[in-house]
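Students often ask what a holo structure prediction actually looks like on paper. The answer is less mysterious than it sounds. You provide the chain, you provide the ligand, and the output is a string of discrete structure tokens encoding the 3D arrangement of the protein together with zinc ion.
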Amino acid sequence: MKTKYCYGYVRVSTSGQEELSPDSQAKLLKDFAKKNDMIILQIFYELGISGRKADKRPEFQKMIALAKSDKHPVDCIIVWKFSRFARNQEESIVYKSLLKKKHNVDVLSVSEPLVDGPFGSLIERIIEWMDEYYSVRLSGEVTRGMTEKAKRGGYQARPPLGYKIQERGKPPVIVPEEAEIIKIIFDKYVNEHTGIFDIARYLNLCGFKTSHNKPFERRSIEYILQNPTYCGMIRWNRTVSETNEIRPESEWIVSDGQQPAIISKELFDKAQIRYKSEYKPSGARPSSTYKHWLSGLMKCPVCGRTMIAKTVNNQKSYCYFTCYGYSKGKCLAKTSVSSLRLEPAVLASIKEVLDTGNIIYRHVEPVQETSVDLNVIITEQLRKNAEKFDRIREAYRNGVDTLDEYKENKRMVQEEKEMLEKQLADIKPAEPTIDTSKIAMLEKVRNVYEIIESDSVDPVTKNEILKSVIEKIIYDRSKDELKVYYYYAPESQ
Ligand SMILES: [Zn+2]
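The corresponding structure tokens follow.
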């Protein structure tokens, strides 16, 4: 038997229907080809376009054009189900008869019976008819879903950046200034091959804002890059409406929208190709945050945000400190620095302080504000005490109190006054803190240094101990300058 050549065609259209992922469909095609001594020259993938609504199936058209060419590259086209090949019976008959009669190319389904003879084509037609029935029914469900969503006001209420609703119930219209931002994003991403972070930084530098009037972040750029609204399509079923959880892409429904496009379909498709090739599920990101003994202490020299320690490829022997703002696209400076460079620099800086005794630090006052409050409180009580003297004298003069009663009352108020005056005297000496703490401070730093230097102490402990004397550390890579900010807080008794 002569080896047959074929194309595979994979299409994922809608949710609800029993559906196989593109990979699963492709695998079935490959298994089928192997079993039947066929060689698949190419598999064409049509992803995320719904069955009945999509007029153009670019991959399908490409495949048909090749299959029809004079070179006769393939003997057949294989699909998982006939419903993948065509969207309705008419279309199926047109393409099949065209391919068979004019170009001698068969269309085979790997999961539906292939029967020779007159009944063969009848059964094939019944299968197609059933598929079409399901597609019509499904399309009705999709429309219902859209209508419901429109009624709830979901899409109508807030079109994405680049569009606005001008008239209730009408498709959104383009906001030219915002559309420019969208064009910049796609252009930079596809044509200039700029990274998502860099795009966010660029936009923020230009002063552009998201539809929520916030600076751009990785997330907002990713959302825009994946939103087919911008090429004139509408996407449904991307998220579970109750939880906002994103469904697998094979379940998304994409169809022609009513809004004008801001970018071409071609540009959008190119963006999807790049995005998919670079996307890594969060669990598999190469770098992860890591508890280093300098964690939380390193601050960005430009924006002051904390620098996060990240390991590279799970390499535990070193890590990189990167500005948290930078990784969010909010800081413009590339200040990332390796722990291999920082560790010796920090140790050397502390050592120098210990050797020279020159230490600059911020004196953190223990919480003494209460004594100030106490002062105010006692003064107030003394004022009230003086009023009491006036009142008991008044009571005696008016004959309310006897002389004995007056004397007794006077004695009690006098006692109170003396007690208050004594209390006030006790808190008065709020001695100004003199620089007697410097020796204590250096002693503290020396202890800390010994612990940091030790190999037998774990990074978490080192980190805690370091934080008892150091507020922050700023390393300026451009000047190779390291600044350690110490603080001294007297132990509370
Ligand atoms: Zn920064």
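Residues 300, 302-303, 305, 323, 325-326, 331, 333 surround zinc ion (CB under 6 Å).
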